[in-house]
Amino acid sequence: MLEVENLSISFRTDEGLITPVQGVSFSVEKGKTLGLVGESGSGKSISTKALMRLLPGNSTLSPETRIRYTAKDGREIKIDEVKPGARALRKLRGGEIGMIFQEPMASFSPVYTVGNQMIETIRLHRGVGKREARDLAVEMLDKVGISNAPERIDQYPHELSGGMRQRAMIALALSAGPALLIADEPTTALDVTIQAQVLELMRDLQRDLGMAMIFITHDLGVIAQIADEVAVMYLGTIVERGPTRDVIRSPRHPYTQGLLKAIPSVDKLHDRLSPVPGDIPSPSERPSGCPFHTRCSEALTGLCDRTVPDEISPAPDRAVRCWLHTEEGRSAA
Amino acid sequence: MNHDVLIEVKNLEVRFPIRKKKLFSSEVRQLRAVDDVSFNIRRGETVGLVGESGSGKTTVGRAILRAIDPTGGEVIFHANGQDTDLTQAEGEELRRFRQHMNMVFSEGSVKLSSMGPDRLRLFRSKMSLVFQDPYSSLNPRMTVRDIIAEPLVASGMMKDREAIDARVRDIAGRCKLNLEHLRRFPHAFSGGQRQRICIARALVSRPDFVVCDESVSALDVSIQAEIVNLLKDLQDEMGVAFLFIAHDLSVVAQMSHRVAVMYVGKFVEYAPTERLFFHPRHPYTHALLTAIPQADPDAEFDPIRLEGEIPNPLDAPSGCRFHSRCPFARERCSADTPEWREIAPDHHVACHFAEEFDFSRPQL
Amino acid sequence: MVDATPDVLSAAEEKERQKRLKYYSASQWTLIWWRFRRHKAAIVAGSFLALMAVLGLFAEFVAPYGPTSRDTKYIDGAPQMPMFCDQNGCSLQPFIHGVSTKRDPVTLRAISVSDPDKRVYIRFFAKGEATDLLGFIPIDRHLFGLDDEKAKLHLWGTDDLGRDVFSRTMYATRTSLSIGVMGVLISFVLALLIGGIAGYAGGMTDNVIQRVTEVVRVVPIIPLYMGLAAAMPKEWSTTQVYFAMTLILGLFGWPTLARRIRSQLLSIRNEDYVVAARLAGARPGRIIGQHMLPSFTSFIIVDLVISFPYMILSETALSFVGLGLRPPTVSWGVLLQQAQSVRVIEQTPWLFIPAIFVVGAVLAFTVIGDGLRDAADPYSEAS
User: Fold this and answer.
1) Closest approach of A162 to chain B, Cα-based (Å)
2) Which of A124, C98, C206, C330 has its CA 20 to 30 Å from the CA of residue B122?
3) Range of the structural domain that residue B140 is part of
4) Domains along chain C?
5) Do A264 and A205 lie in a common domain?
6) Which tens digit of pLDDT belongs to each residue from B286-326?
7) Is C35 in contact with A306 (Cβ distance < 8 A)?
8) In this structure, are A227 and A256 located in the same domain?
9) Is the reported ipTM for this assembly greater than 0.85?
10) C-alpha of B262 from chain center
């Protein structure tokens, strides 16, 4: 239901023109979850903000960008062509595509009650009366597992605990009835037991509502539990894509392999951790050719440092951007 | 690793009065951030401290360093050998002890918890803290070289500029920072690099003890791995002891020799790492361990359902703090606070029924 | 898509790299300056203020006449516009028409009439009245003057005593700006001490100081000044009155600034890097000097800059109502005091020109303050 092709975003800053996202393509199907994994600077958050045209004023989308979204009523919306600030965009945000963030307080205004904000959203997107909206809001709060929903609805955000706030934020996003939910590191700031609860909640909700989801995180463990498909991002490009199980079991891209090896595991207690060597280059110092070549132990000189690899499909459903998996790469290795 | 005890914490308590203002009166309630905590840290070892929000783990770390003042209990710092228990000293007595200060450093133990501010400053070089947020813990207006040199300069430990420079370069090199980096300002660095600067700063005075307060939590997994390796290397090279505070159990497991678990201000379990992770005895530890999502789609992710939310330390449950959410709670749990006892050699638990539980997990 | 080979960076890329290197080694102040530079309005305002300051500083040179010298032949005279061409042709050198005094038959006022056939040329760096620049450097040349030394050029007209408005305005600029600066300085020192102690000490000390600040703040200014002005002995020289004014303005201007300093200190006190310094064993003196002060300097500078207009306006207002500086001292307020009647609006509106300076100065300071505020946030990376 969402098709993104060749998404490229540039910014003007103190340091000059930087392009944190280059040539990103992915798609999300109805009812499925796409996990976007990457470290800081990988461009995962910015890419999804671009989907809702929420980028700051000093940014530009490249002309080759294509973002096609199929709305609930079947219409196709070309998001890349919509002008920022257009009415169509406002209807899109919330009603069609919802977003939840890492910091729950970011979604809530501290001066209004939780219920107040939910009712506002519901009325805006569903056009129902105040009474009906309130009932819907209570129902939603209950659905996300907040105890005492009829009382909680009149509380202020700061009166709720961290876990509850996050659930309330999910409820707020869902109350607009979106078909696609973008979750930007929603569980990163939560305690591990609460994270487990929220993950379970999100899985159930998705199943019940048939919602599609884009789940952004840096935690591969969370991805393994919640995403059907995963896209691994590095320095603004997707280096590998595919069904979660496959990508984790047999990663093709050296970066994915490195990431998986770097994860500490209780079962490997005495071994030294193996980080991916080197540092992420800053987006303003983008390496030529394959962005990962500066840290890749298998980089092929003359190829990996000169030309950006195209995305190829080594298996059905899988996509990889790496010279090692191409004819030229294999012969040069 | 030397088995001498370096820091002994006895019945540590940190209480904050919270004043709730009503119209004509004000109610004061006590928030026990740390409630009767006792444990020790050995020379050259890493003790991991885990817990969720409100557990008090950060407060424990800061209380040991006297960044926050404890309201009860003792923190005893053993330096090479015998104990000379020095109590609170001020004014005249203080001046008399100053001459013996070096002696104390090399052959005495001091009660950090009740030390006056001047004496305390002299101990600062022996212990330090690595913060969680690498962005706010570096003064944006100082060069990296000055930031790292701060502990040496500020405490008056070293005065000669050349010596200071040499020491700074040495520790910066060990933390993989080069000369070029020393000249720059913090805004030029990434999170991981800034954290390395923090670590360099914490270690420049060759302390015996460093508290790492969620030092890797804000970092990406690969950078995390780098920093953990760095810390372990530095520990091997310099023999420094760490108190590694974090909420990510997997990382803690990698770093620590022993791990302690806290819940709402109290310790619930403390054991050597492998023991804790594969043979925990406390239901909360077990719940924590099962809640970790593994990066293995085939692994069973079946977290134990804990009812409700983590209690607010202001409204801590009676008896065993965990009884309100514990799937194994019985009547006694809400009435009596469990004793902190040694259930096996070097394995402490605070649970009435710990002997009955066997949460052993298969070791691969 | 083929990219350039990595060994040879193109000239453009090398430039980018150098630019980034400069950025990394840039100290906080450099960064602030770069951001400030991009604020066009602030730069314009800054230049305008700088110009005013120069004019005021070198008033003796810029102004053709002294602040009290009278031109009895040109009373209540309209501004004389320099011309390049008149009915008799054009010339490269600007000139004005000579004047002579006549009596208006209706109002019986002495009016000056210009004689279109008499040209007096304007010359730059012309010889004029001898005077002392800044009070001790003797000069006799001025920025501009007339060829005919006996004639006078009144760019902005004269007042009812024949005094040149342009010259007086220049001298007034010096007085008003300097009072503003000194008043702010006194306030600032006081605010720093008081606010600093309150912010650093906290607790009871802070409480007490807060209450004192509130009392000072609440004192009604106008009656206070009236009382003080009345109390100022008539025998005091103009200089004494001048200093007394700055002192008073400074002594009552500190509460707002002190409050700002205190709140900044309170928030900085809890920043991680300050805690880190404490844990490193730093003495309180070092913590304040090395860590806290530089941090809040960038915030306080903004507050400082915003304080200037208040000082200037206070002085102007007081002098305007006669409570501040008195003639023969000139300040914008004193000049405007003469512009108070309806008659002035009708007949000699050029006496209002100093008001433009007041407005200009206040606006300029405000815009600069805005620009500084935007530039001074150390963590904002986006443009």
Assistant:
1) 9
2) C206
3) 5-256
4) 80-153 (no CATH), 168-375 (1.10.3720.10)
5) no
6) 998 888 888 777 777 777 777 777 787 788 888 888 888 88
7) no
8) no
9) no
10) 11
